[in-house]
Amino acid sequence: MSEKKYEVSDKFIWIYRRMHVKNLVEDMKQLDKRELYLLLLRTLDDHDLENESVKTNMRAFRAECLEIFAINDGKDTSCPVLAELKGEDISKTLINLHMTDHHGEEMGLPLTNDEVRDEKITEILDDGDEL
Predict the structure, then answer these.
(1) How far is Cα 128 from Cα 50, in angstroms, rounded to an integer?
(2) Which domain holds residue 83?
(3) How many Å apart are CA 2 and CA 114, to the nearest integer?
(4) pLDDT band at residue 4, thresholds of 50, 70 and 90?
(5) Is 110 a member of any domain?
(6) Nearest partner of 18 among 43, 38, 36, judged by Cα
(7) Can you give the pLDDT at residue 2?
(8) Per-residue model confidence as pLDDT tens digits over 80-117
(9) Do 81 and 34 meet the contact criterion of CB atoms below 8 Å apart?
């Protein structure tokens, strides 16, 4: 059986890779509903849910997370986006969600500690402040 691949936006990938780094709630609100649910699903599998940034980002979408949990418990949903995704049977195999960018390239993993450090240094230097 071939696994379904979901094409996601560059914005989705950017957010996903940084969920554990900082508050991205406003960025997440810019995603369409399908990508938001896919992001929440993937975050539940791949990120440390004890991380404060992850908690902050997920808490802002508590209702959506509760809908996901209900589906995982075998309940029906009134959300058309989740109903469509459930029809694709992703709720039983969340870890197998394969997401690609618009070029068909696999989405990367969350940023490593070194990548986070490099990104923070770049942000500091890009602010124009002199060290």
Answers:
(1) 33
(2) 5-126
(3) 34
(4) low
(5) yes
(6) 43
(7) 46
(8) 888 887 776 554 444 445 667 777 777 777 878 888 88
(9) yes
H/E stretch holding 20 = none
State the pLDDT at residue 24.
97
Rounded to 5°, angle at Cα 37 from 41 and 51: 50
State both tokens at 122: 């770049």
Assess if residue 131 is contained within a domain: no
**122 located within any domain:** yes
Total structural domains within the chain: 1
**Alpha helical stretches, state H, the chain:** 10-18, 25-29, 33-46, 52-59, 62-72, 80-87, 113-126
Residue 1's pLDDT is what?
Answer: 40
pLDDT at 33 over 90: yes
CA distance 93 to 120: 34
